[in-house]
Design brief:
The complex is a heterodimer. Chain A is α/β, with parallel strands linked by helices. Chain A folds into 3 domains: 158 residues, Rossmann fold; 59 residues, Helicase, Ruva Protein, domain 3; 87 residues, Zinc Finger, Delta Prime, domain 3 (Up-down Bundle), CATH 1.20.272.10. Chain A is 56% helix and 9% strand. Chain A has a 5-stranded parallel sheet, sandwiched between helices. The relative contact order of chain A is 0.10. Chain B has 17 helices and 5 strands. The chains are: A alpha/beta, B mainly alpha. The interface between A and B is large, with 62 and 65 residues.
Chain lengths: 318, 386
């Protein structure tokens, strides 16, 4: 069994556009667009995590390019690529190699987390899109559309994905549970939804982990949900507020340098953590995070910036 | 051979900086006709005034007759040399006159020189080029009335760096980034001085410049900085620490972070380092090296009373450093494999996938069929799971 199929999130990823959970509008207009494949513009998908953006992009590639879709699709994740030059090189290489003698209309480049790119990098990306548009179509994916520069938005057909409702997440989870022959009670499923905050991919991962304890109950879900590394970020915040800067910093560095959490994700999670931590100076803390987030963009060494942030947070502890 | 001579540009297009000034100078020579005003080039030393005059003359087919400060420039001398040229242009072919360091004509030894010069300048029959470092003296003001003046500026560090790197390449020599920055900062836009300093550096001796301070090693410098009794003393220590700015910031960072300071002091000092790092980031992005002069002023804010800071090279405890070096490498490589399979970023793998995969494996509900080189790390991480 291939690795990808061991994880339910991959095993039950929809293969056809029509199978997508709850994105009726997007699916509807895309289906009509696909009737005339050669006319398809570049696409830009926006919406929160785990609502099906990447899944849909892969479905489209499969539908347009057929069997050999993998050979003609380049998947990039902006938060993994080091700088726009890396993106340019990979796109250039990909768009060049022969293969357009087959009956495929164009190659597809899926660029995930495009909103992680700086405005400068996006400007460069715009050129890349233009230079290769003869042979390639881009599907850009972003959590936050307002972080995508206008010139790129205007070159793409924009699709906004809605959140998946609790009812639909739970229905989907039940279906998986049935196929995997796992017992799941209502409280357990509801707990999964609460922990996942509507993120389908996270929900499925929690369910699989909880299922490894036997069945899906509130208790087993609780045991599994605490595993995510966002919990460690909560811990970093707690240590900082308690004035234990060195411990907080060591943990932060472990998350980033050993496990590979990105700096921008770390900032995102620590900002979310303040809402969970029930602190009093919520606004000031968030402001401090914003200040260092900005400094990371203009600075040279994120580690220095993040250490300074943790030290500054110690001012807000009791 | 001196590099500043050896690498003197041979074509106008080889020169760096002052593009506008160069263009208007060439424009002046191209459009020159009898009676047109002479030109005066004003600017600090070593930015290419002389080079510009010589190579432009060459490119446009002029014979150049030059005088400079080392020639005696009294009345008779100037008249003797220049007057024949002015009268017999056809006989001698296409000529022009270049008088370098014209602000160096002294009242006493160059007796009557200025007057003789002014007379010639008022009725030029061939192109005349003058060069000066400054146009502020009374003598220069008189001369300026008869000329068209072009100002040249010091060459910006960004261009100096490009030029220096080219010269080093041509010479097959190398200089550490720290030394390159040092040479560029000290030359203050003077290409000649930059090349002289560089040549001195690569040939292994330091030219006796008035700027040569004692250079300190990192460890004693950082310790001396925190022991300094006054801001002034701390400033001198900082200035003597001549290393790459990135290393400089890092040396303070690792020393401060490991010195178990009260959290209030630590926060204050890390804020300063963050500011220094932002400045360095800006310099790297814009290549505006002139901003580097503010780095020491920012770092000086780290100095305070009774701060127990000791130099430390490493900013992390050993176990963590080792974990980053060994485990981190394997985990990241595994994450990049998984990221492709699951269509997510490596960061998402770290946060939302890896812990669940380990948990399922630990509960014997999942066996990852993956390159066996990852088995060891998977076992290790499973054991760490709560």
């Amino acid at each position: 069994m291939p690795v990808s199929n061991m994880m339910w999130v991959e095993k039950y990823r929809p293969l056809k556009i029509a199978d997508l959970v709850n994105q009726k509008e997007v699916v509807g207009s895309l289906t009509s667009l696909l009737k005339n494949v050669t006319e398809i513009p570049h696409l830009l998908f926006s919406g929160s995590a785990g609502v099906g953006k990447t899944t849909l992009a892969v479905c489209i590639a499969r539908e347009i390019l057929g069997e050999g879709w993998k050979d003609y699709t380049l998947e990039l994740n902006a938060s993994d690529e080091r700088g726009i030059n890396m993106v340019r090189e990979r796109v250039k290489k990909f768009s060049k190699f022969a293969g357009l003698d087959t009956d495929i209309p164009f190659k597809i480049i899926i660029l995930d987390e495009a909103d992680e790119m700086t405005a400068d990098a996006q400007t460069a990306l715009r050129r890349i899109i233009e230079d290769t548009s003869k042979h390639c179509r881009f599907i850009l994916i972003a959590n936050n559309i307002s972080k995508i520069i206008e010139p790129i938005q205007s070159r793409c057909a924009v699709f906004k994905f809605t959140r998946i409702s609790e009812k639909e997440v739970i229905a989907h989870l039940k279906e998986i549970a049935k196929k995997e022959k796992i017992k799941a009670d209502e409280d357990g499923l509801k707990a999964i939804f609460d922990y996942s905050e509507g993120d389908m991919r996270h929900a499925i991962n929690i369910m699989q982990a909880a299922a490894s304890l036997g069945s899906i109950t509130e208790e087993s879900v609780k045991g599994a949900a605490g595993l995510t590394k966002t919990k460690d970020v909560d811990e970093v915040l707690k240590l900082s507020l308690a004035g234990k800067i060195v411990d907080a910093r060591n943990k932060m560095i472990e998350l980033i340098k050993v496990y590979g959490m990105s700096e921008s994700d770390f900032l995102k999670y620590i900002n979310e953590a303040i809402y969970r931590s029930k602190v009093e100076n919520l606004v000031e803390i968030s402001e401090a995070i914003a200040k260092y987030d900005y400094r990371i963009l203009s600075g040279a060494n994120p580690e220095i910036q993040l250490s300074a942030l943790l030290a500054e947070l110690s001012k807000f502890g009791k | 051979m001196m590099w500043s001579e050896k690498h003197r540009p041979q074509k106008i297009s080889d020169m760096v900086g002052n593009e506008e000034a160069r263009n208007s100078f060439v424009d002046w020579l191209v459009k020159w006709k009898k009676g047109a005003k002479p030109i005066l080039l004003v600017g600090p030393p070593g930015i290419g005034k002389t080079t510009l005059a010589w190579i432009t003359a060459k490119e446009f087919g002029y014979d150049i007759v030059g005088l400079n400060a080392s020639d005696v420039r009294n009345k008779t001398n100037i008249e003797d040399i220049l007057t024949p040229l002015l009268g017999n242009t056809t006989l001698l072919g296409k000529s022009l006159i270049f008088i370098d360091e014209v602000d160096g004509i002294h009242g006493r030894s160059d007796f009557g020189g200025v007057e003789a010069l002014l007379k010639i300048l008022k009725e030029p029959t061939i192109p005349i080029i003058l060069a000066a470092n400054s146009d502020q003296s009374d003598k220069m003001k008189a001369i300026k009335k008869t000329t068209k003046t072009i100002y040249l500026k010091p060459v910006p560090p960004r261009l100096l760096r490009l030029y220096l790197e080219k010269v080093l390449r041509d010479e097959g020599e190398k200089l550490s980034p720290g030394s390159i920055i040092k040479v560029i900062t000290e030359s203050r836009g003077d290409i000649r001085s930059m090349l002289n300093l560089t040549q001195a550096q690569v040939t292994g001796f330091d030219a006796p410049t008035d700027k040569s301070f004692e250079t300190l090693d990192v460890e004693p410098a950082v310790n001396a900085f925190f022991k300094a009794k006054s801001k002034e003393e701390a400033r001198i220590v900082l200035y003597s620490l001549r290393i790459d700015p990135r290393e400089k910031i890092n040396a303070f960072y690792s020393s401060i972070i490991t010195s178990s300071l009260p959290s209030k002091d630590l926060a204050k000092m890390l804020d300063v380092l963050s500011e220094a790092d932002v400045l360095y980031g800006k310099i790297m992005r814009t290549q505006e090296w002139r901003l580097l002069r503010y780095l020491d002023n920012i770092l000086l804010k780290l100095h305070g009373e009774n701060l127990q800071v000791q130099f430390s090279q490493y900013n992390l405890p050993w176990p963590l450093l080792n974990k980053i070096r060994w485990d981190g490498k394997v985990i990241k490589s595994l994450a990049s494999v998984l990221a492709k399979k699951f269509h997510v970023s490596q960061s998402a793998i770290a946060t939302f996938y890896f812990p669940y995969i380990l948990f399922c494996m630990k509960n014997k509900k999942l066996a990852l069929e993956i390159n066996p080189e990852y088995n060891e790390i998977l076992e290790k991480e499973m054991a760490l799971l709560k």
